[in-house]
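Example 250, ligand S-adenosylmethionine.
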Amino acid sequence: MTFEEACTIIESAVVESKSRKELLLNLFKDLGVKRMAEIGVWEGDLSETILQNVDQIERYVLVDPWRNLPDWNKPLNKSNVEFESVRNTALTRVAPFKEKVVEIRATTKEANSKIDDASLDLIYVDGDHTLRGITIDLILLLPKIRRGGFICGDDFSKTIWQHTTKYAPTEVFPFALYFAEAHDLPIFTLPYNQFIIFNEPRGFEVIDHGGYGRLTPEDIYAPPRGRLAELLVRKTPGSVKRFIKQFMSR
Ligand SMILES: C[S@@+](CC[C@H](N)C(=O)[O-])C[C@H]1O[C@@H](n2cnc3c(N)ncnc32)[C@H](O)[C@@H]1O
């Protein structure tokens, strides 16, 4: 696929989609994804949706440790007992597609030696969204994608305080941009906190479908002021969040 073709497909998916799932389904279908991995599976909600709707998928690799991680300060870091049940839910959901599914019960770092280089068309990164997590994920996973494939992900949050200051900051944004720049790859920002990088080293370029270009350092890094502001920022849509932040910083 040429860069121009990828641009057209991604732009159409953005225009036609009204939710994160719809966007991902449109992208994966139209980009012709056949072999993919999802990093961070949780209860397999997205895995099931993709397997049910993207008929051309031949191999779907699930990577998740499904265990408590002592150094991961995020809301979904549950107990080992809870993770057993979360994994069971995921495996039940994907059971109808068992001939396509490969489970790797591991963190990205542990899974690294189990995925061959250039063996995948696309990886969806949705695991540990801290700076440490996204750094390890993008560095270890890019070689797993064939040339002309894609690496994309969730939680490309416009504020690093996605889960309030009680938890570790989410730094998928801006790290993924710097990663793409380091590798001379084009990156598309997308709605619904998504990004996608085209693994074709034709020069760094940002195609900003998600409205990240107008963000200020304050928007990205300033912690919400006070508990009320934190709660409001957490529960409200993006446009309202910006207004609240501006209001609270007056
Ligand atoms: C946000 S959930 C995934 C949601 C799922 N992709 C969906 O859309 O339904 C995050 C998952 O990442 C997993 N996780 C955390 N750290 C990880 C790591 N270092 N490598 C792989 N997965 C990780 C957690 O166990 C958790 O199940």
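Summary: The mean pLDDT is 93.
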